[in-house]
């Protein structure tokens, strides 16, 4: 299970500190670099833009050269980006490092679907993919634990980013070795790009694309601004303000464990009920954080729900895209992630500008309304059944 272990490590680094590290440490970064809320939103959106570009690049590289190249490049991007952040002495270096680190998430997700298909036996593939997916949960919780330890020991935030960079180095070395066991070239000839795009642009896929965009917007806002919003409100009562963010991210990682049950829940209640429920829970999470940023029970509930929504909707994106386009499993999944990444870009920039005039609590409330609207309008099928 070398591939599964390497995949779990890669997703832990890329979807943990590399992707959410900026939001986790935003209060300290704001103080060090004198960032405004609007500037913070632009940096966060730029980072998610890097994620989008990397998704497209990873799809091409994986199809052309196999999964090892994009995964290793993604791990190296995380290493370089987090090192730059740790050494940054101005806002430009901070932004450049944050964006570069975030590209790793785009390179270290979809290629492992390809790697599992080519390098793991059918009877062990689902288990391997489950192990790989848990890396995200572990990465988010692990980043929170490290941030908690750094704050508890009165260390500077740069120490945490230095440790993050060392983890990215380990991911590079492990996956360079683990994925070397795979063939260097794809086993089948890829379908022409225009043909792929025509197949993907079907009415039956519209509900999937719509929820990917909506949740991309809301999760991008949550991951970018939650910690800063809580700390600016004074933090959790009885706890040093700088410890509030790490506690929330640990809870978010714990909540993400629910993602492992997504397929079973879907089998029992169906797609429509599951998706509507998740978007209602996402709205509750956003409202709890936005309107009660100093309440222990509501903030922990908010983080647990958001972690569950992130992991469960990620699983839905994966298996629903495969069900709709079985002949284009990897490409269709990448297409959904690209739409999700577009939402990630739109959300933080819009919320940062909105918060500058109306306040972050209003920005969170409006985002919650978007999630509720998505739940209300969602239908699994449009037109004739898939």
TrEMBL record:
Mode of membrane association: Multi-pass membrane protein
Name used for this protein in its record: Putative MFS family arabinose efflux permease
Record bears the keyword rRNA-binding: no
Transmembrane segments: 42-62, 69-88, 128-154, 160-180, 206-227, 247-266, 273-293, 299-321, 328-346, 358-378
Pfam families: MFS_1 (PF07690)
Signal sequence segment: none
GO cellular component, one term: plasma membrane
Compartments it resides in: Cell membrane
Organism: Kushneria sinocarnis
């Amino acid at each position: 299970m070398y591939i599964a272990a390497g995949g779990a490590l890669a997703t832990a680094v890329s979807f943990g500190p590399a992707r959410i590290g900026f939001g986790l440490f935003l209060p300290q970064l704001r103080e060090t670099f004198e960032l405004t809320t609007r500037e913070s939103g632009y940096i966060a959106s730029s980072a998610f833009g890097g994620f989008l570009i990397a998704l497209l690049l990873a799809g091409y590289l994986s199809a052309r050269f196999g999964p090892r190249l994009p995964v290793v490049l993604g791990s190296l991007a995380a290493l370089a980006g987090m090192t730059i952040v740790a050494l940054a002495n101005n806002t430009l270096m901070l932004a450049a490092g944050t964006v570069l680190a975030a590209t790793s998430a785009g390179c270290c997700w979809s290629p492992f679907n390809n790697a599992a298909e080519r390098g793991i036996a059918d009877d062990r593939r689902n288990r391997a993919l489950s192990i790989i997916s848990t890396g995200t949960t572990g990465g988010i919780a692990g980043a929170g634990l490290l941030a908690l330890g750094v704050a508890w020991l009165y260390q500077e935030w740069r120490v945490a980013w230095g440790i993050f960079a060392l983890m990215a180095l380990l991911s590079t070395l492990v996956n360079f070795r683990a994925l070397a066991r795979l063939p260097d070239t794809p086993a089948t000839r890829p379908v022409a790009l225009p043909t792929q795009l025509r197949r993907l642009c079907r009415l039956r896929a519209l509900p999937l694309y719509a929820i990917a965009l909506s949740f991309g917007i809301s999760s991008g806002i949550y991951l970018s601004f939650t910690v800063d919003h809580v700390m600016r409100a004074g933090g959790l009562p009885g706890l040093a303000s700088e410890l509030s963010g790490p506690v929330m991210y640990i809870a978010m990682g714990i909540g993400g464990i629910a993602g492992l049950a997504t397929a079973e829940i879907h089998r029992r209640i169906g797609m429509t009920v599951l998706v509507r429920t998740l978007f209602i829970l996402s709205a509750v999470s956003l409202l709890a954080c936005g309107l009660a940023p100093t309440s222990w029970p509501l903030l922990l509930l908010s983080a647990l729900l958001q972690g569950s929504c992130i992991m469960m909707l990620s699983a839905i994106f994966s298996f629903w895209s495969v069900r709709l386009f079985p002949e284009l499993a990897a490409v269709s999944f990448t297409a959904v992630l690209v739409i999700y990444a577009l939402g990630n870009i739109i959300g933080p920039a819009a919320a940062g500008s909105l918060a500058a005039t109306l306040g972050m609590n209003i920005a969170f409330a409006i985002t919650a309304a978007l999630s509720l609207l998505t739940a209300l309008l969602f239908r699994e099928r449009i037109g004739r059944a898939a």
